[in-house]
What we know:
This protein has about 725 residues and is an alpha+beta fold. The chain has 27 helices and 28 strands. 5-amino-3-(furan-2-yl)-1H-1,2,4-triazole-1-carboxamide (9MJ) binds near residues 83, 235, 236 and 300.
Amino acid sequence: MSRNPAQRAAELRAELAEHNYRYHVLDDASIPDADYDALMCELVALETEHPELQTEDSPTQRVGATASRDFAEVVHDIPMLSLNNAFDDTSAEDDAARFATIGDFVRRIENTLGLSEPEFSVEPKLDGLAISLRYENGLFVRGATRGDGAKGEDVTSNLRTVKTIPLRLRGSGWPAQLEVRGEVYMPRAAFEAYNAKARESGEKVLANPRNGAAGSLRQKDAQETAKRPLAFYAYAVYLPATPEQNLGERHSAALAQLRDWGFPVAPEASTAQGFAGLIAYYRRIGERRDHLPYDIDGVVYKLDDYAGQRTMGFVSRAPRWAIAHKFPAQEQSTELLDIEIQIGRTGAATPVARLRPVQVAGVTVSNVTLHNADQIARLDMRLGDWVIVRRAGDVIPEIVKVIPEKRPAGTQPWQFPDRCPVCDAVLVRVQKVKKQTKAGIEYEEGVALVCSGGLFCPAQRKEAIFHFAARRAMDIEGLGGEIIDDMVELPFLRDGEASRCLRSPADLYALRLDDLTELRRLGQERSGSVPETVKKGKVPTRWAENLLDAIEKSRSTTLERFLFALGIRDVGESTAKALARWFGNLDAVMAATLDELRAIPDVGPVVAGRIVAFFAETHNRDVIAALRAAGVQWPDAEPQRIAQGVLAGKTVVLTGTLEALSRDEAKEKLEALGAKVSGSVSKKTDFVVAGPGAGSKLEKAAELGLEVWDEERLLGFLAEQSS
Ligand code: 9MJ
């Protein structure tokens, strides 16, 4: 930053002009509003201190950016005002200090007009696009954007598509010429619905409702605008024929009149008395902000009495009789310091952004959970980047975008690590199931990564041991959640000279009575509930003996229970049973290849992948070896490789396009029923499933006289099997 005020002012002017252009002309804000406001404040302060630095083209001297060339220019007969903004000093101790700017605003009016506690029209400050509507003899004739306040763009045909803008005024008594101003906005629900549809059809989604409104109004094709769910609220009215006059005497009454003529006015618009009334309104609307059907970024106070407004007049281009009181910003920019991977209890790897702490809507944010690797790639987040953090109301903070202009040199795209940061096992990619219906499985967007070190990863230890001990797994009675918590957190286990926590299920089989009494002692000490009897040296050992018995009993088990107890992702009891039957012994299961596993009727490709990844981890194999060494055993059996599905022994060929199912899904389902799905038609084929566009395979099937199913028949058949 340059020290020289003239240089700094020039820098600020250039920077603000660029942001202005991007925001108003390109509808692509490059920095959050709060950053823009801060730059503007700095420039205003510099120019106030050094008036000689003020230039004609300074952004402090106008309202917006120049109009884009795509639309005809409209000169506003009555300039479109901008409002001065008031921001809270959130570090202030009391309301007077926190709302000092509002206090000054009210006092100035009171002093100038010799009033106390004047009446204000109070309105929500919509976050949309300001426009001006001209009516002649009750008919809508022209609509324009604000542009720079003096000149805007003629967007009449686009505005005609906005359903809440009256094309003809209702009632009577309107002046021959009327200019109504207000905000075009996109209601939140409409924005969500629009984006959901756009996402589905692969079209571009809108960044936020404000961008949505601005972009929609700038469409060159009004039919395009008509597709966007825009709405309008009126908040000002002028008489172009007699610009020195107002409509009636009070602004609140003029708004009521506009309502009668058919204009929508925000239902939250009201009146309030004096400073206290304004602050009460600000708080009331602030509380309702997240529940309003539209986005607002503050409230607006306007002296209600028009005569008073005329007396107060203007400074620069902003009125002295009105002010916008902004809510603390919901978006802030900050630096992305790191992306760390957290491993959850079940092994799910979640990336978390570590940020330089920043205040967002009144709360300090330093960590933001990211959805998945795809989100990081889509936003192209890189370490050292400046990012925009958004926190709206109760919503969890999120990173909405990277500021490309602020990217330091030499950054690299972020790569999801291959290995678990806690235990170094391989992270495997999985698709999370959103819902499962008869028609098939619906997956969540993007892939998730999961640590495959289930048996030994410290992050997953509790869950792994809990599952291992479960009734339907190793059935260790008495080994429940709280004891497991203590076991993996307290150093109760004597290991040579030192003591340590339980690390894996294999450790269970080495436990001795005094380990468990030590565990009980440490647990009671931690919770501060050591009974008197224990203090006196009497340790009850009954529960410990029972637990040791239960552990002992679990040593003799079955292969299917043992396989289930390992906690391999997606290997439930029935898959464990299928594996046990198919292979007969553990070594064969551990050595099985993907293809061998996929031959089992109950095992699809995803589950097969999980099994292979699990046994590929040396640490998992070590824990299994330790369990066996500790005497955990089961009877082996002869492999029983009989496919049991209804399609066992049948060969099926899929051809053409299927609509309700993908090819892979159809294949998986048929295989689950025991079928072998083959790529080519031969005499051995039992039947062919053909969708539209089927070619030579269908011909061949006809030649061989094979049975041919359409997709409907397949779906019917599958539904029958699963019902
Ligand atoms: C918004 N944005 O909701 C004004 N505004 O009045 C309201 N803007 C305004 N009033 C004069 N409610 C200039 C701008």
